[in-house]
Automatic annotation (TrEMBL):
Pfam family, one: Response_reg
PANTHER family referenced in this protein's UniProt entry, alphabetically: TWO-COMPONENT RESPONSE REGULATOR
SMART domains in alphabetical order: HTH_LUXR, REC
Name by which UniProt lists this protein: Response regulator transcription factor
UniProt xrefs under InterPro entries: CheY-like_superfamily, NreC/VraR/RcsB-like_REC, Sig_transdc_resp-reg_C-effctor, Sig_transdc_resp-reg_receiver, Tscrpt_reg_LuxR_C, WalR-like
Annotated PROSITE patterns: HTH_LUXR_1 (PS00622), HTH_LUXR_2 (PS50043), RESPONSE_REGULATORY (PS50110)
Keywords annotated in UniProt: DNA-binding, Phosphoprotein
Response regulatory domain sequence ranges: 5-118
Annotated ranges, domain HTH luxR-type: 155-220
Modified residues (4-aspartylphosphate): 56
The organism of origin for this protein: Streptomyces polychromogenes
Amino acid sequence: MAGLRVLIADDNPVVRAGLAALLSAAGDITVAAQAADGHEALSLTRRHAPDVVLLDVRMPGVDGISALPHLVRLAPVLMLTYSRESEIVRESLLLGAGGYLVHGEFTPEDLVRAVHDVREGRPHFTPTAAGALLDNLRTSSHPQRTVTQSPERLHNSALFGLSSREVEIMDLIASGMSNQQIAAACFISEKTVKNHINRIFAKLQSTSRSEAIAHWLGTARPGVSGHG
């Protein structure tokens, strides 16, 4: 049996080279390809069919979070990143990542073990990622968070297929908040807000904030505009 074949997706060539050296030294892992962004990662994953994809979160162009739901259909994905935010960790797992490693928190042996674990369907986390996930779960399960949902919002959530976080952000959009204000209110980065908004707009079949608000508040029907 040949060793595991891995694809490394990271915009930093020094990081890619370092990871490739660590993995190649294991003896039973081969680096099949390297990508500098999410788009290239998806293209190379289709071409090389790796056993595991190592994926950074923040990359120019198509970032890791945007590429993740497409990549997990092709291969198990292990997030390997400097991003420590609990919301990023949670979002990665919801989108199908099999593990989450934060740079500086793992040894070469840990990395090799994580690659094998994710390939076999066993989740693997470094301490900060595990702690961030626990914090996020505790925050999300706080009773104050759930009682703020009105029947209309719960109906809209089901109608459009929005997650609880997307419902929260859509409500803030409807209240007139900017991306910066939403980021501050939700304790997440503006980049994460933009990622959420892109998915919200797709689910609401909207191309602008005003159109999304109209659909969300029930003053327009999804799908009636956008062509022609």
